[in-house]
Amino acid sequence: MALYADLHRHLGGALHPRIIYKFLQRFDHSVLSYFPDYEGFYNWFTRPCRTLEEFVKIHTLVEELQSVDHLPYFCLRLCRGAYTFENLQYMEIRYNPYFRTDHNLPVAQRIGQMDSIVEVIGANVRPADYPITVKQILCLDRRLPKHINEEILRVAKKNIGPVVGIDLAGPEIDPGKWDIWVKLMGKARASGLKTTAHLGETGIENVHVQYFPVLDRIGHGIHIPLMRQEMLKELAKRQITLEVCPTSYRQTGVLKDLSQLKVVFSRCREAGVAIAVCTDNPGRNPSPCTLPGEYERLIDHDVIDFSELKEIQNEAFRSAFGFVGTPRL
Ligand SMILES: [Zn+2]
After folding, report:
1. How far is the CA of 10 from the centre of ligand 1 (A)?
2. In total, how many domains does the chain have?
3. Cα torsion 194, 199, 200, 206: sign
4. Over pLDDT 70: what percentage of the chain?
5. Other CB atoms closer than 10 Å to residue 1's CB: what's the count?
6. HSE (side-chain half, CA atoms, 13 Å) at 235
7. What is the 3-state secondary structure (H, E, C) of 64-78?
8. From the CA of 279, how far away is ligand 1's center (Å)?
9. Omega cis (within 30) before 288
10. Cα–Cα distances in angstroms (integers) from residue 217 to residues 18, 102, 221, 263, 297, in the given order
11. Which string of b and e fits 200-209 if b means at least 16 CB within 10 Å?
12. Which domain holds residue 171?
């Protein structure tokens, strides 16, 4: 049996909608007044959105549910599903620790809670019955003030081991503020963390060459091969891997059809830029959305050939931030 590695999966979007719905029922959550039955919730939760901003709004609901007390519930289900239904050997799970702190507390106390969020997740992503290796990537967010992002970086540095990297997430706003993020990524790298950033997902405005020297991977980046092909040379030289999440682009309204990814894959192949196929927010996609399913869809849409499959699977292990051992491909 082949085993897989997923490098781009958000904790807030990783869980099957049935798990979220059962959780809401358990606590008689007020959101259930809109969704008296599961089907209505499922359709709302997995519907394609017109924009990334619209998509992120639903994500916020789940982040608030994943408080420190409830993280063990979600982590166990995340690991057992990934191991049992997707054959994942290795997974990097990314999340913003600040968004999982208690929203009723003042900012300083919320910042203080972030360490325990990381600890609780670290302790609960190693269920004995599901031997999957899970590493954490902490997300900075374009919507948060600089000092909170700096605190997230501090927490990441303090927890190197379970935490392997930093990501830049949130809607692609304020493209002119790239210098703030480049500095933070530079600091992260200097302290031994790996780096990735959501760039070039919905357009090209956020992609600045100044990012390249401080990044190990790029989350999505599909608009680089689509619109600024000449930049690929630099990515290849710096061995920056693109994390491509096929179904996600249909859900966020970025692509109409997966066959549009043909150009992305062929230009990257030509330029020598590595691609790791990932899932992003599989729980938000119509079921079943699994990593093996994403590989299959790429073949089905003629984006890749079956003969390339092993190589692409292997790329995910090779580009991983914290994988040690031998991939069981
Ligand atoms: Zn993402």
Report:
1. 6
2. 1
3. negative
4. 99
5. 4
6. 27
7. HHCCCCCHHHHHHHH
8. 8
9. yes
10. 32, 31, 9, 19, 23
11. bbbeeebbee
12. 4-318
Q: 235 C-alpha vs ligand 1 centroid, how far in Å?
A: 19
Is 174 domain-assigned? Answer: yes
Q: Ligand 1 centre from 265 Cα, in Å?
A: 19
The token pair at 54 is 């619209």
* Span from the CA of 199 to the centroid of ligand 1 (angstroms): 10
| d(CA 325, ligand 1 centre) in Å | 26
Q: Does residue 326 lie in a domain region?
A: no
For residue 276, is it left (φ>0), alpha (ψ between -120 and 50) or beta?
Answer: beta
Residue 324 lies in a domain: no
Check residue 49 and report its DSSP letter: -
Helix residue ranges per DSSP H, 176-290: 178-190, 223-227, 232-237, 246-251, 261-271
Distance 171 CA to ligand 1 centre (A): 10
Using a 10 angstrom Cβ sphere, with 0-12 exposed, 13-18 middle and 19 or more buried, the burial of residue 245 is: buried
State the average pLDDT for the chain.
94
CB 169 within 8 A of CB 161: no
| Structure-token pair, residue 212 | 């390249």
Give dist(CA 32, CA 65) in Å, integer. Answer: 13
Number of residues written out for the chain = 329
- Nearest alpha-carbon partner for 329 in 320, 312, 321: 312
- Listed in order, strand segments (DSSP E) in 105-155 are 133-141
| CATH label of the domain that carries residue 147 | 3.20.20.140
* Residue 319 pLDDT: 97
Residue ranges of E strands in the chain: 4-10, 88-95, 133-141, 163-169, 194-199, 217-220, 241-244, 275-277
Domain assignment of residue 236, yes or no? yes
> What tens digit of pLDDT does each residue of 242-291 get?
999 999 999 888 999 999 999 999 999 999 999 999 999 999 888 778 99
Q: How many angstroms is it from 27 CA to the middle of ligand 1? A: 28
- At 328 the pLDDT is 76
